[in-house]
# Entry
Amino acid sequence: MIAMAYQWDFSAVWDYRWALASGLATTLLLTGITIIVGTIIGIVLGVIQAARLPRILRWPINIYVEILRALPVLVLLVWSYYFLPMFTGVGLSAFA
# Structure
């Protein structure tokens, strides 16, 4: 068996540990916000769908759900960050 000649050097990770910890904290915060907001929106849309409203009132919700279910999240993120400001003139921060 051939021995590996490469030695892993984690000193760069240690040097940037505070930046990585900050990024982890931001990621966890955004994950929590996304879970809460997504759950609220899902419950509201689910209740509206189950309410037996006329079809004409449920169509916009069906279209919204089908479009969002078909698009990858990364596409939505890129679109909302780069293209939404072009159409609306409203710029978003990187956190938003």
The chain has four helices and no strands. The first helix runs from residue 11 to 15.
